[in-house]
Amino acid sequence: MLIRFVRMTFQPDKLGEFMAIFDQSKDKIRAFPGCRHLELLRDIDKPNVRITYSFWASPEALEAYRQSELFRTTWAATKMLFADKPVAFSAEKIMEL
């Protein structure tokens, strides 16, 4: 299983627009083949930062989503609202305690 983090810094006055985009797409993303989990987090120290945290069945499942029309349209609308470059990375769990 692949765990994906995407940290996005938004223009403070654009957070409402982002939430509207996320609300419209979250169920579609969650239902995308291979998506096992999706969360939206807020940075406690930086109120205009949001982080998506998702689980994917495989790197191929994530890549299929990234090549989809759903991702292209959602990301195109979202990136217009950024105040800084997003940071994305994937990880896999080694150990749970």
TrEMBL record:
<keyword id="KW-0560">Oxidoreductase</keyword>
<dbReference type="InterPro" id="IPR007138">
    <property type="entry name" value="ABM_dom"/>
</dbReference>
<dbReference type="InterPro" id="IPR011008">
    <property type="entry name" value="Dimeric_a/b-barrel"/>
</dbReference>
<dbReference type="Pfam" id="PF03992">
    <property type="entry name" value="ABM"/>
</dbReference>
<feature type="domain" description="ABM">
    <location>
        <begin position="2"/>
        <end position="95"/>
    </location>
</feature>
<keyword id="KW-0503">Monooxygenase</keyword>
<dbReference type="GO" id="GO:0004497">
    <property type="term" value="F:monooxygenase activity"/>
</dbReference>
<protein>
    <submittedName>
        <fullName>Quinol monooxygenase</fullName>
    </submittedName>
</protein>
